[in-house]
Amino acid sequence: MNKVSKINSRKAHILVGVLCCSFFTMIVFLSAFGLKKDSHKRITNSPSTLNGMIAYPFNLQRILPLQPDENRLRKISLKSYKGKPVILNFWASWCTSCQREAQELESFWQKHKKQISVVGIAVHDDMKSSRNFAQRHGKSYPLALDEDGAVAIEYGVTGVPETILIDAAGT
To answer: Of 46, 80, 105, 130, whose CA is between 20 and 30 Å from 118?
Structure first.
């Protein structure tokens, strides 16, 4: 073996060693911090930059319910819930996770509607699909349509479903 071959062979061994060490370090790091079963809790429990701020006022087209006495009320406005805590649930008819949580939210609403309001806001959806989804899943709490996603953006929504609590003071 000549001198050049020995140098190239040595470099190859060093490179393989560095790659193995890097891979091992990455596995240890992911095992310790990134692949835990409850790693999502670090994200979902992190404080929002919107905490303590006055909730963004909205006035959106109503999806449901449209009972006879509510036909004149074609809009849902946050100000109509003033003085009462509100759960805003951002959802979409095409969202499979939204389908799974639909019954849970409806059950919650039925049990607690005297203490807290629930308002569902369909994001980046259309009226027909949203109404079909709501009827298929038996939603009875007020639902509104945010077709262009402008209200969702104001609330910092990055995906659906996402649920936000607004206290009685409107923050």
So the answer is: 46
